[in-house]
Amino acid sequence: MAIKINPLTATQVLKAKPKDKEYNLGDGDGLSLKVMPIGTKLWRFAYYRPVSNKRANLALGKYPDLSLAKARTKALEARHLLADGIDPKVHRDQTLSAQQAILTNTLQVVFDDWLAVKQTSIKALTAKKLKQRIDKYLLPELGKLLIGEITAPQAIKVLKPIANQGKFETVGRLCRNLNEIMTFAVNTGVIEHNKLAGIGKAFETAKVTNQPSLKPEELPELMRAISFASIKYTTRCLLEWQLHTMTRPSVLNCKF
Questions:
Q1: Is residue 96 located within the same domain as residue 130?
Q2: Could you report the per-residue pLDDT of 73-84, keeping only the tens digit for each?
Q3: One domain, residues 138 and 96
Q4: Same-domain check for residues 99 and 112
């Protein structure tokens, strides 16, 4: 036959005196008040873990910071989790961990993590230029802000002075970089969604100017100019090779 436990009263909790050894005052359904020899009173919720079925205790708080009524509410919340097969202690630890991560993940911190991954797939020089760009234009104003709290108007305000200088290509790169960082933060669980997805629409796009080209009938004149130019033989060969093969200079890997 189960032992019936009479619920505690606020007066009993208030007047509970310390003894030589700690002792518990039960309220029923797993909730109890532990009274310590030094007089401290702690609320505890006893339960069986869903998977292992081992007995465990969940610390709810200290009296009088946590009243009897609030302790019962917390115990009820824990029982609801157990009814869904969720360990209340694991749930609380995961929630606290997520909250702490949100409070420490500034743009600077997430950028460093993102760059560590990004630079494994790009050239060292590209990574260096990327870091210099972010360090110069974004981090001075936004670096110390929590990434989840950065809004589109804040980012646009930082980028506008750059756009006003006509550096639209730089602005475009920065918008793309910011979106990559925010997407990385979403994928790693730092934030739930990207608030900066559309900031690029607030600026003009850089006008693309194609490099000038020669008409076919102008090629003979170019070849004659190369033949009589005061340049090294290797340089002449390089230019003629490129004209014949249409390769990029970096592909040739030549020094001249």
A1: no
A2: 999 999 999 999
A3: no
A4: no
pLDDT digits (tens, 9 = 90+) for 23-50: 999 999 999 999 999 999 999 999 999 9
**Does a structural domain hold residue 112?**
yes
Question: What distance in Å separates the CA atoms of residue 110 and residue 177, rounded to the nearest whole number?
Answer: 12
Residue numbers in the chain where pLDDT is lower than 70? 1-3, 101-103, 206-210, 249-256
Q: How many domains does the chain have?
A: 3
Range of the domain at 114: 107-202
The structure's pTM equals 0.52
